[in-house]
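Could you help me review a protein record that somebody else here produced? What it holds is a sequence and that sequence's fold in token form. I have pasted the whole thing underneath without changing anything:
=====
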Amino acid sequence: MHEHGLMTKLLRQAEREATTRGATLRGVEARLGALYGADEAHFRHEFEHVCEELGLGALSLTVTVEPTRPTGVELVRVLLAE
């Protein structure tokens, strides 16, 4: 459940950025550090689930895993279309 909340927050943040710029959200790039409590496959599964739940359609997802980075989940880039 914790990952679901993190993903919802991440995607809402990406949506706000797209809205602020008057663009359409096309995808996100995220980085998973040492403090992220699950694996990349689980992160991807939650991404797809929350995208569907929020009605965002099929967004692209790029994930970088850096197990030595002392962070959890970081939103690195928001991919937009004008």
In short: The first strand starts at residue 24 and ends at 32.
